[in-house]
Specification:
Blueprint: E1 3-4, H1 8-16, H2 36-47, H3 54-58, H4 68-81, H5 93-101, H6 105-108, H7 115-118, H8 120-133, E2 136-137, H9 143-153, H10 155-195
Parallel strand pairs: 1-2
Length: about 200
């Protein structure tokens, strides 16, 4: 988070005001309403990038229904990045391409895209995640402040912690079960020895 970016509150407000077209179904296998590749190509032009060839634009098109939430999240990010602050920021073109084509899959795998519009904490998380991906931090924050706040909101980190806690609980249950089974076998062996 090297450089200062736009103010956080203007971006979270922008997410809260996301127009319905950016929440509409992305076109997947000729079904849906919004062509993510076209929206992304337009965004890249606004930011200062070059016109995408059909082959280049295809990387933004979801190939199957499993990528639906990721495509929906990418549409929401496109709306966020249409913010005037990002216009003609040519150095951001490549990081934005990476963000929209690859950088959202983990988050899209655990959080429904609409929550990033409806829920204030998820809005802040998405703004901070996008800014971090672009090596930016919210205006008025230090790099440490921005990193600490993102960490406190990070859905992927929370999911990892939950998985680790569940794994520890499962391991503890398995350990207790093994100990109980060992005791039971010892009791059965002792009972058998007493009968003989």
């Amino acid at each position: 988070m090297k450089s200062e970016g736009p103010p956080l509150d203007s971006l979270t407000r922008r997410l809260a005001e996301t127009p319905g077209i950016f929440l509409a179904e992305p076109i997947i296998r000729k079904r849906g309403k919004v062509d993510l590749a076209a929206v992304t190509s337009d965004l890249l032009l606004v930011i200062g990038g070059e016109l995408q060839s059909p082959r280049q634009a295809k990387r933004f098109s979801p190939a199957n229904i499993a990528q639906r939430n990721q495509a929906r999240l990418a549409l929401i990010c496109c709306w966020l990045l249409y913010e005037d602050w990002f216009h003609q920021r040519t150095p951001l073109v490549e990081p934005i391409i990476l963000l929209l084509s690859e950088g959202l899959s983990g988050l899209a795998g655990i959080v429904d895209a609409e929550r990033f519009v409806a829920d204030p904490e998820r809005r802040e998380e998405l703004v901070r995640l996008v800014l971090r991906h672009l090596s930016l931090r919210p205006a008025g924050e230090t790099a440490n402040q921005a990193a600490d706040r993102l960490k406190s909101l990070d859905s992927l980190e929370r999911e990892r912690i939950i998985r680790e806690a569940r794994a520890r609980e499962e391991e503890e249950r398995a350990r207790k079960l093994r100990a109980e089974m060992k005791k039971k076998r010892a009791r059965e062996a002792a009972a058998k020895a007493n009968r003989e």
